[in-house]
Amino acid sequence: MLWIRSVPFLPAAGARAMLAAFDSLGLDAEALRTAAGIPASALRAPDAVLPEAAFARLWEAASRAVGREELPTEAGLAVPFGAFGALDYIAGSSPDVATAFAALADHFRAVASGFGLEVEEVEGGGEVRIVHSRSLALRDVSDEFTIAVLVGRFRSRPSLPFRPEAIRLTRPAPPGPTRHERLLGAPVVFGCSLSALRVPASSWRAPLPSADPALQRTLRELSARLDPGEGAAAVEQAVRARLRELLPEGRAGAAAVSRSLGMSERTLQRRLREAGRSFGEVVDRFREAEAERLLASGGPPLSEVALRLGFSDQSAFSRAFRRWKGTPPSAWPGPAAAPAKPARRARRSTGRRRRRRS
Prior knowledge:
The protein is an alpha+beta fold. The protein folds into two domains: 2-213, Alpha-Beta Complex (H-NOX domain); 230-331, Homeodomain-like (Arc Repressor Mutant, subunit A). 53% of the residues lie in helices and 11% in strands. The chain has helices at residues 12-24, 29-35, 52-66, 71-78, 86-92, 97-111, 139-155, 180-184, 201-204, 213-226, 232-246, 254-260, 265-274, 279-296, 302-308, 314-325, 341-357; strands spanning 2-4, 7-11, 49-51, 115-122, 125-132, 166-168, 188-189, 195-200. It has a five-stranded mixed sheet with strand order 4-5-8-6-7, with helices on both faces. The termini are far apart.
């Protein structure tokens, strides 16, 4: 993200892709662009940027025209291939799905300040997480749209057996039932600290039919030339990667993390301050997101989750989780969570027995 005089600017490529998606959904894309006050000339240059407020107006105009909770997901799935330019070809020319996600993460690290992808191979597959190092008013909408774009990019290929296993979104739970799970093809948990996409092993290592080693090598080299290396987002992501290793060992203090990154503690703190973060905030945000991931996967017991996150005991972890989510970790909704229908049936049957007795 580009910041000028405290006004956030975002790449215009995102607006072009959204307009292409709205057109695919049967909306009047030109009318929406006009309603958002975005001149056509502002979208022509490949490296053009737009104020974040313009994106907000565009989404507001589309939401008024459609009125559906699932619009960001629908739009993300409808973005045609090539709408994001080089980004689409960096992913499409990769040998397999896992490498494609890694290539996307490298590209975002090079060209996007304040936004990035964390890609991690986990037991049974892989996970891709969206990480922001700056506040973004449209974060919930942007994250949902991005997750849908990632799903759509791989699922749209008939010969590719891609199917997500679980999805977490930062947006609050909608007031009523929605079609998110049907559209995305996976269980969805709302109200998370990070948006994420979990992919099973069968899809994670699936080869891409469009793999092109020469094109992939060229695009990766171009991306590497753009890599700032010292960006605030890159520093925060590096800290998060070290925390995953050091928290279970009880060595996740600022001094230990800075040593593992080959820099002084003062330098680490300064670079995080430049990103608008403190070291404690990064640790707290990481723990919250990692707790969501571990609990949603239905994997380790709470005592083990507490140890993995560097808490002294399960009670300390439970207190922190209540602070983050307002609910105990045992009640956090995971992909397998289901409404308590049996209790309601029991109450109705009790009522029938009472009527029969009367």
